[in-house]
Design brief:
- By secondary structure, the chain is α/β, with parallel strands linked by helices.
- It has 2 domains: 186 residues, HUPs (Rossmann fold), CATH 3.40.50.620; 97 residues, GMP Synthetase, Chain A, domain 3.
- The longest helix has 24 residues.
- Strands 3-2-1-4-5 form a 5-stranded parallel sheet, with helices on both faces.
- The chain contains 11 helices and 10 strands.
- Bound molecules: xanthosine-5'-monophosphate.
- Xanthosine-5'-monophosphate binds next to helix 6.
Length: 321
């Protein structure tokens, strides 16, 4: 790979910030740039770097794509308001669900999300604003996994030889491409992100769609969203790298009130990892898993089965699609 990694041990935080702020200023010149903020550590760090470089010439958007966690848009707008950064929420739910309709295949889902995000949503938005650049938080691991052919991460374009200027009408600025997650957290912390953001567990670009096996519909997203809230609530103090809920495609026979209930299956995963390249399942105490299973099967409508994944990465991956 052309990009050279800057490891956490080699990272000079102040120097990195100074260099990236200068580079963003140089690239954008006197014009405007649009910034895609999802609320993860990476895009949050990029938002503050670009805010330092461009001030009011930066337009930050949170795309409400319908596949985010509960209450996410409001929460992120509030966090950044306190930091002096105005974030506009753009409702693109119809566009995303239309693009995902009827798709089962993991790579086709990822491609549908990529095209909707970059072409349908950001294409006209960047053009309308008069900006020539889109800032985003692509990191070293995203590029590595895509180039290795494990999964096409939703945000990898130019590294695959895709000319975004020609296809979508703007160039990408990706200040974090040389860093993995631990280094991005150090940058986010130094930039003044609150701890709840710089220490946030990773969340994938394709959001909850990466956690629905089979077709992604608003109804199926709502199920995995509710299960996600319960999993995050149960495991937030586990110290794990990442924890998530997955909605399976197949139903199984359960029993409720003495009758067959052919219902849904939720799989829980919780990972120990340093950089998401390899990972091990967390040895969660059994009583926590039992309570979580009881909550999911009573509070999430239609779920009759909860499983806990005990596979390592590899051969598993962290997300399900
Ligand atoms: P996997 O599932 O490949 O995930 O083991 C490795 C790490 O990357 C996150 N992930 C993504 N992040 N865009 C992202 O920005 C994506 O398309 C994507 N897919 C997976 C995943 O949550 C884990 O932390």
């Amino acid at each position: 790979m052309k990009i050279k990694e800057i490891t956490l041990a080699r990272l000079d935080v102040k120097n990195f910030i100074r260099g990236q702020v200068a580079q963003i200023s140089d690239m954008v010149g006197g014009g405007l740039a649009v910034n895609a903020l999802s609320g993860g550590v990476d895009s949050s760090a990029v938002t503050l770097l670009a805010h330092l470089a461009l001030g009011k010439r930066l337009k930050s958007y949170f795309i409400e794509n319908g596949i985010m966690r509960e209450g996410e848009a409001k929460y992120i707008v509030g966090v950044f308001k306190k930091l002096g950064v105005r974030v506009e929420v753009l409702d693109a739910r119809p566009e995303f669900f239309r693009a995902l309709k009827g798709i089962d295949d993991p790579e086709e889902k990822r491609e549908a999300i990529t095209q909707t995000f970059y072409k349908t949503v950001f294409g006209p938005l960047v053009k309308r604003s008069g900006a020539k650049f889109l800032l985003q938080g692509t990191n070293y691991t995203d590029i590595e996994e895509t180039l290795a052919g494990v999964k096409r991460q939703h945000n990898i374009l130019e590294q695959l030889g895709i000319d975004t200027k020609k296809l979508y009408g703007y160039k990408l600025i990706e200040p974090l491409v040389a860093l993995r997650k631990p280094a991005v957290r150090a940058i986010g912390k130094a930039l003044g992100l609150p701890g709840e953001i710089w220490s946030r567990p990773p969340f994938p670009g394709p959001a909850l769609a990466a956690r629905v096996i089979g077709e992604v519909t608003p109804e199926r997203i709502e199920i995995v969203r509710q299960a996600t809230r319960l999993v995050e609530d149960a495991l937030k103090n586990s110290g794990a790298f990442q924890y998530l809920a997955i909605l399976h495609k197949d139903k199984v026979t359960g029993v409720r009130d003495g009758k067959r209930d052919f219902g849904l299956q939720i799989e829980v995963r919780c990972w120990e990892s340093r950089d998401a390249v390899t990972a091990k399942p967390t040895r969660i105490p059994y009583p926590i898993l039992e309570r979580l299973s009881a909550r999911i099967t009573t509070e999430v409508k239609g779920v009759v089965s909860v499983t806990y994944n005990i596979t390592c990465k590899p051969p598993s991956t962290i997300e399900a699609i």
